[in-house]
Backbone:
């Protein structure tokens, strides 16, 4: 199923501007490349499972702000990979809400599951980000760095980040 | 002052997760834990969560150009999520089970009143249910009666 969320907004730090974005399934011409500063080799994943990759892009320019891979295992939704654009991290970070929009999108997909894991978005955090996920996305840490966002927390994130 | 919460400003790259260790014992334990969380959820809350999911499915359907799904099918999904029988739902609403069945099968239109009742129970806007019905009808007429409609022109009418 193809999803397009219109009227998502991320926030530009410099000009304090709202930037209109949307999330949709990735297209080959927009798969992020290492030469553009992206850390992960998304082309490899795209070749194997393109339907699992979604991108957050600017509506006006198609500028790519972030990419997320969502996979299902036995009915459980896993946020297998998430990467935000190189210009959205570090000291020169340009925009806010990029990760939030993509994580909330994952929570929304989890709520549509028809399984024993309905509503739960699961993932393995980088060790340094465990507290960040807890504080900003109401995630719960369980076995090691494995985390989940429960449906109630997911709904809060959807209300905050996916308000069309 | 630097925002301590904004760890993204301190990252050297934008990858925010590690890969899930699917297939390991720890992963299976993790799945078991999530399943137990779901099982512990009180029935009413579990149903409310399912209804939120249904709302998203309807929203996505309206936006997509996928195969037609009759509004009655969504109403049936709604009743199923309540974990009750259709006949119990009909009795609760004080309508004949056969009439409800006709709505579910697409033989009767979903009424505004029933859509409002479903909204009251499900927290899914009546407008959303009715939009599915209207959109399906518009698509159907556009597909099968296009010629008889396209012949009408403003220019002809006013000259």
Residues:
């Amino acid at each position: 199923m193809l999803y397009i969320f219109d009227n998502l907004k991320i926030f530009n730090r410099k000009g304090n501007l709202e930037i209109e974005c949307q999330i949709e399934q990735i297209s080959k011409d927009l798969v992020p490349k290492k030469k553009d500063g992206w850390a992960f080799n998304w082309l490899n994943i795209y070749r194997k499972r393109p339907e699992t990759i979604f991108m957050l892009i600017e509506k006006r320019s198609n500028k790519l702000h972030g990419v997320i891979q969502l996979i299902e295992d036995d009915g459980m939704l896993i946020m297998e990979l998430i990467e935000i654009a190189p210009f959205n991290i570090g000291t020169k970070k340009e925009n806010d809400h990029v990760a939030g929009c993509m994580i909330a999108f994952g929570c929304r997909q989890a709520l549509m599951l028809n399984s024993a894991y309905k509503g739960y978005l699961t993932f393995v955090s980088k060790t340094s980000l465990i507290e960040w996920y807890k504080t900003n996305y109401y995630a719960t840490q369980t076995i090691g760095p494995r985390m989940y966002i429960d449906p109630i927390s997911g709904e809060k994130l959807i209300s905050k980040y996916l308000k069309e | 002052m630097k925002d301590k919460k904004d760890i993204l400003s301190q990252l050297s790259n934008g990858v925010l997760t590690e890969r899930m260790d699917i297939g390991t014992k720890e992963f299976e334990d993790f799945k078991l834990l999530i399943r137990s969380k779901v099982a512990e959820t009180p029935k009413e809350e579990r149903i409310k969560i399912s209804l939120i999911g249904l709302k998203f499915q309807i929203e996505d359907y309206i936006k997509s150009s996928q195969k037609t799904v009759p509004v009655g099918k969504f109403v049936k999904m709604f009743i199923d999520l309540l974990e009750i029988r259709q006949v119990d739902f009909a009795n609760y609403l004080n309508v004949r089970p056969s009439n409800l069945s006709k709505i579910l099968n697409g033989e009767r239109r979903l009424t505004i009143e029933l859509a409002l009742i479903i909204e009251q129970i499900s927290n899914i806007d009546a407008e959303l249910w009715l939009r599915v019905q209207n959109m399906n009808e518009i698509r159907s007429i556009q597909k099968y009666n296009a010629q008889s409609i396209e012949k009408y022109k403003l220019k002809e009418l006013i000259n």
